[in-house]
Every structure is written in structure tokens, then in C-alpha cells.
Amino acid sequence: MGSWLQKNKQAIYGSQPSQIGSFDWGRSSTQLTKNGLAIYLMVFNLPNNNELSIPLIKNEIDNISVLETGVTCNYHKDESKILISIPTSAPNNKVSVIKLLLKGDRVIL
């Protein structure tokens, strides 16, 4: 737990539950950072297709990456959701954290 917390602490300390909610695969938190608004997706149960679906966010997305490794995640939007492709090997076999860095100071759904 100590090693995981050291690598993923920004998803926990100073963050709040995100208004995008919880999912079958995990939950989300949010935090205003000096670089924009961050949403952290804590993935407890990685879907078999390695793809996360979250509600459509109208904010411009700066970057989506695996918090622990910095590896960029591909994504695409449709009319109602954002689909995020997770690297085939999750960086953590317990809880992987995906960081969405957004423009703005609040989530716009």
C-alpha cells in the first residue's frame, strides 16, 4: 500500500469525489491543480476490453495518462461518452489510476 500511495498520492490527497460519479470498474475523484483540472479514475476492475467509458465532458482534454507510469492513453468521444483505452498491461494489479487533465476550473458535463 505504501508504494502505491507514493506513486498515486495526487489522486487521494486534496482530491474530492468527482461529479462524474462511480462506475462498475471503479470510482473517480477530482482536484484543481496549477496545470488545470484533474480527474482521477481509480480502476479496481479493469474491463476485459481494456476500455473505460465515462460520461461526456465538455471541457477540452489536455492529456489522459496512467498516473503511475505517465504512459498516454488514447481516447475518443461520441455524443454521450468518452472511451479511454488503457494499456494492455495495467500498471498495478490492484488499483490503476488514470489521470485526465482538463482545461478550466470545473467539470462541465
Structural overview:
- The protein has one helix spanning 2-8, and strands at 16-23, 26-33, 36-43, 51-55, 61-66, 75-77, 81-85, 96-102.
- It has 109 residues and is mainly beta.
- The strands form 2 sheets. Strands 1-2-3-8-5 form a 5-stranded antiparallel beta sheet, with no helix packed on it. It has a 3-stranded antiparallel beta sheet with strand order 4-7-6, with no helix packed on it.
- A hairpin with a 2-residue loop joins strand 1 (16-23) and strand 2 (26-33).
Describe the structure using short key phrases.
Immunoglobulin-like, 5-stranded antiparallel sheet, 1 helix, globular, single chain, 6% helix, 46% strand, mainly beta, 8 strands, 109 residues, 3-stranded antiparallel sheet
Write the layout of secondary structure elements.
Layout: H1 2-8, E1 16-23, E2 26-33, E3 36-43, E4 51-55, E5 61-66, E6 75-77, E7 81-85, E8 96-102
Antiparallel strand pairs: 1-2, 2-3, 3-8, 4-7, 5-8, 6-7
CATH fold title: Immunoglobulin-like
Supply Rg. 13 Å
State the helical fraction: under 10%
Rounded to the nearest angstrom, the distance between the terminal CA atoms is 33 Å
Class by SSE composition: mainly beta
Proportion of strand residues: over 45%
Low confidence ranges: none
Q: Which strand order spans the largest sheet, edge to edge or round the barrel?
A: 1-2-3-8-5
Domains, number:
1
Would you identify the CATH H-level superfamily? Golgi alpha-mannosidase II
Any guess at the CATH architecture? Sandwich
Question: How are helices and strands ordered from N to C?
Answer: HEEEEEEEE
- Strand tally, please? 8
For the residues shown, what is the average pLDDT?
A: 90
**In DSSP terms, counting alpha (H) and pi (I) runs of 4 or more, how many helices?**
1
The largest β sheet comes out as: 5 strands, antiparallel
